[in-house]
Amino acid sequence: MFGIRRVVVGVSGSPGSLRALRYAHELARPHMTLIPVLAWLPPGGDLADRRAPCGYLRRLWAEEARQRLQDALGAAWGEIPADPPVWPVVRRGEPGRILVTIASPTDLLVVGAGHRGLLARMASGSVSHYCLTHARCPVLAIPPPVLARELGHGLLGWVFWHRPLTPDRILHDHGNTAA
After folding, report:
1. What is the pLDDT of residue 179?
2. Total number of domains constituting the chain
3. What whole-number distance in Å separates Cα of residue 105 and Cα of residue 5?
4. Is the residue at 141 inside a domain?
5. How high is the mean pLDDT of the chain?
6. Dihedral of CA 53/55/60/65: which sign?
7. Separation of alpha carbons 164 and 144, rounded Å
8. What is the three-class DSSP state of 76?
9. What is the arithmetic mean of pLDDT over 167-177?
């Protein structure tokens, strides 16, 4: 892709974001740098954190976010590939705003276009929609995997989207322990 230097991709650990991460990796492979980004907020949001700030908890939450990004990269590839160069980034803040801030006009921003219900979109908005309307660079929205779309309805869908799948969790859930 002419003029694109980096591929910035939003990562949350969801099946849709893992698909976007793999796609971004393929796009970046020839001559670009891949920047997987995980944005996080404290439980209860920034307002709750401002009401009762605690440095110890902030460090724990930041470490958990770093671990979630490492788990997502491991779930996508097994280990971080050597080509293209991968520079993981973890930032505190709203995911859409963080992604748009990190991506420069010479980048390509890749996001998962996850399927969520109307109520969820109204309550928290859509990261892909925010990026499409606010980014200063091209944005590529990757549709969720077919399985995720089929499971995207009802209680089972809620559990599927709100439970990050890691290799350790999958092995643990099936009665095995991670090696």
Report:
1. 44
2. 1
3. 10
4. yes
5. 81
6. positive
7. 15
8. helix
9. 54
